Recover the amino acids of this structure.
């Protein structure tokens, strides 16, 4: 019996397979090479099998100073996640009502998506250098000893770095929440108000449970986009590197698979986070059906 599927089916299937290989092949290669023996190198074939490079990475005795950069990136990503979720929800609630300038404000809010990331980073760095000059001039004019003797720069992970990461995560959060509230049925809130619920009670007991699964998606976006952001971090972190910056700085000097072990560990952490979030969404939906 002749195969009823057209030739284009096999062409598209082959193309899709090559695309998946291109997309995930490097990740699989790094994962394999990170489990080499102590004499392993940076290219195939892999030399033996062991967890030597993970042990070296965990002990902090290798060439990659993972500890401070990892903690810094993790705290920053958590803060970006919380702010992204909070601001996105508040903006989504505000944009449910028409107000003057709402369209212009929306375009301004999401315009950073079309601006090259390195340009955004340079612009924020320039802005904070102007702030530095203003603070130093203020210290000189008012005779503030702390500014004159100790102040170096306002650039840092939780000042300019936080702003740079929010310029990347917030547009995604806003677009998700706008889509959610555009499909939100206000009849549920009206019913709650008819039963005597206050605006806060309506939001807490009606609106929030309905949009909770989407908030988890916004949280995952916020955390993961901040966690691996490099271009927008490159000019704004001051003297403190994040984990992606540390990796980029070490790629020219590291000559062993320790860097592969770090990549595998961080990728596994991101995958585990996504799995946990999907599991939480599934539990919430199951509980809602049972009610």
């Amino acid at each position: 019996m002749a195969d009823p599927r057209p030739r284009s089916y096999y062409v598209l299937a082959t193309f899709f397979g090559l695309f998946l290989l291109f997309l995930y092949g490097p990740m699989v290669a790094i994962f394999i090479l990170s489990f080499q023996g102590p004499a392993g190198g940076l290219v195939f074939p892999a030399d033996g099998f062991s967890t030597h490079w993970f042990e070296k990475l965990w002990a902090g005795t290798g060439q990659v100073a993972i500890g401070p950069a990892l903690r810094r990136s993790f705290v920053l990503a958590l803060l970006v996640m919380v702010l992204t979720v909070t601001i996105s929800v508040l903006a989504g609630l505000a944009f449910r009502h028409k107000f003057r300038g709402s369209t212009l404000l929306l375009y301004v809010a999401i315009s950073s998506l079309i601006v090259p990331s390195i340009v955004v980073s340079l612009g924020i760095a320039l802005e904070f250098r102007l702030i530095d000059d203003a603070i130093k001039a203020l210290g000189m004019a008012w005779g503030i000893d702390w500014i004159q003797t100790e102040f170096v720069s306002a650039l840092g992970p939780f000042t300019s770095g936080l702003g740079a990461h929010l310029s990347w995560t917030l547009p995604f959060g806003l677009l998700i929440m706008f889509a959610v509230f555009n499909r939100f049925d206000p009849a549920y809130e009206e019913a709650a108000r008819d039963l005597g619920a206050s605006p806060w009670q309506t939001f807490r007991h009606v609106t929030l449970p309905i949009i909770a699964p989407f908030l988890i998606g916004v949280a995952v976006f916020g955390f993961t986009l901040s966690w691996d952001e490099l271009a927008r971090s490159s000019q704004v972190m001051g003297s403190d590197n994040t984990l992606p910056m540390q990796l980029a700085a070490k790629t020219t000097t590291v000559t062993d698979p320790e860097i592969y072990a770090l990549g595998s560990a961080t990728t596994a952490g991101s995958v585990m986070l996504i799995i946990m979030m999907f599991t939480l969404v599934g539990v919430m939906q199951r509980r809602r059906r049972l009610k």
User: Anything to note?
Assistant: The mean pLDDT is 82. The radius of gyration is 24 Å. Residues 159 and 237 are 8 Å apart (CA to CA). Residues 65-253 form a domain with the MetI-like fold fold (CATH 1.10.3720.10).
